[in-house]
Amino acid sequence: MSQADVAVLGCGHWGRNIVRVLRQLGALRGVCDPSPSGQAAAREAAPSTTLYASPEELFADDGVRGVMIATPPASHHALAAAAIEAGIDVFVEKPLTVELDEAQDLLKRAGDTGRILMVGHLLEYHPAFVKLRELVHSGALGKIR
Asked: How many angstroms separate the CA atoms of 76 and 142, rounded?
């Protein structure tokens, strides 16, 4: 992806952080949040960025190549599916979905369309988890059940 082609859906607690980081990286194209508090947070975090009125408006922007979804978990499936169908790569803050069949549907959609689908991984690279993974793989902890 090139510069300024990633949009954010949701500007609450996590979304605000994502907006801030993307803005610092020069990758932020715009933000969509239907709530007045989310819109205010987006204006504060990225005053000169595009504010989309709806997810549909965001998905219709040909300049958006990736979207980061930081909305309530119950909305993840519908938003990610719509983004994938619009030809947009997707990062979804965890959990990916609230139901297993919804997650499987997103995986299938992404695979069928060649889109990237990624879920949040905040602690995956934390030194404690890296060490624990090493211990598990080395067998130092015995058989894990």
From this structure: 37
Provide the token pair at 27: 């990758």
DSSP state, residue 12: S
Other CB atoms within 10 A of residue 105 CB: 16
Coil, strand or helix: which one is 130? helix
Each as own residue / partner, the long-range contacts of residues 60-65 (CB below 8 Å, 24 or more positions apart, any chain) are 60/86, 61/7, 61/29, 61/30, 63/4, 63/5, 63/29, 64/5, 64/6, 64/7, 64/29, 64/30, 64/88, 65/1, 65/2, 65/5, 65/6, 65/89
* pLDDT tens, residue by residue, 43-80: 999 999 999 999 999 999 999 999 999 999 999 999 99
As given in the structure block, the two tokens for residue 34 are 């239907």
**Claim: this prediction has a pTM higher than 0.90:** no
The Cα–Cα gap between 60 and 101 comes to 27
